[in-house]
Amino acid sequence: MEVILLQDVKALGKKGETVTVNEGYARNFILKKNLGVEATTKNLNDLKLQKANEEKVKQEIYEEALRFKAEIEEKSVEVKIKAGEGNRSFGSISTKEIANAVKEQLGYEIDKKKMQLNESIKTLGTYNIPVKLHPKVTAELKVKVSAL
């Protein structure tokens, strides 16, 4: 019996796949627990439309990430830190401070966990910080660190 899975089923398949199983297994387990539906022409057509819609939504999210990347890379953020003699800083700047500065200065919400900062910034200057906006899109955020 052909069944379209509505959820991931261990050792059988992932959501949206069409699998062939014994009729008893399908009737007594998969259909009873709403893990899948029978693969009729109507259900197969619905699955095809649903997958097309999901692809369209994924493409729109990807395009939005590309637009956001272009906006971020045009602008820069300034973060101030206490500095002593010879521009040596007291403390360091982490992704949390950068995220707060982006929110205040540019008005964007960027999750600090999406910033890929290897080590915290301890010196004055300009830095390009990679920000993961989408699995395929990484933007370069320009951060200027200056003394108070």
From TrEMBL:
GO cellular component terms given for this protein: ribonucleoprotein complex; ribosome
UniProt keyword RNA-binding present: yes
GO MF annotation, one: structural constituent of ribosome
Keywords assigned by UniProt, alphabetized: Coiled coil, Ribonucleoprotein, Ribosomal protein, RNA-binding, rRNA-binding
Coiled-coil residue spans: 37-64
Domain of life: Bacteria
GO terms of biological process kind: translation
Annotated ranges, domain Large ribosomal subunit protein bL9 C-terminal: 63-146
Keyword Cell cycle part of the UniProt annotation: no
Residue ranges of domain Ribosomal protein L9 in the record: 1-47
NCBIfam families listed in its UniProt record: L9 (TIGR00158)
Function: Binds to the 23S rRNA.
Family: Belongs to the bacterial ribosomal protein bL9 family.
Annotated protein name in UniProt: Large ribosomal subunit protein bL9
Organism: Anaeromicropila herbilytica
